[in-house]
Amino acid sequence: MALAPLYYALPVNLPFLGIHRWSVVVAFFTVIMVFEVVRLWKGITFMGLRPHEKEQIASFAWAAAGITAVLWLCPHDIATAALIGMALVDPLAGELRMSGVRDGVTLPSTLVVYFVICIVSLLAWEVRPALESLLLSVVAAFLAVGSERIKTRYIDDDFLMSVVPAAAMTGLALI
Fold this sequence. Notes:
This protein has a two-stranded antiparallel ribbon with strand order 1-2. Helix 2 (about 60-75) packs parallel to helix 6 (about 155-175). The protein is an all-alpha fold. The chain has helices spanning about 20-40, 60-75, 75-100, 105-125, 130-150, 155-175; strands at about 15, 20. The protein has one domain (about 5-175).
């Protein structure tokens, strides 16, 4: 998932295929969703699938939906920050929780890691002034880490951690 922003390295029109790069995202999303429909229909399970995902939409499908939405709807610098942040901070937060680390350590550490990923990503694109990138990164870090803490069977944090901060940064950047 952290490689999703490599999408922006592709030429807008893929000369070797004669298609727009957006077609790659649509194909990615379609393949994942078809696989997920068949998996749910046939009751297929595999290694890495969490027990509660046996009869509900799996996190990889939610992540694919989030990646697709963010790549489609958000500016490239914001999409890069949100997707790399989600891909690295979500597993970090989960591992810290599983190892028994207290919330007093988990929350600040994941906030700092997301913030650093976000500010570095935004500044690397050189699209926005540094102060704007700083403010967007602070807001995104709190929203992403807050989204990761939401546990419900109706929507996965892999989707929320990419879409919520990306949507907020995009909205704030328009002001």
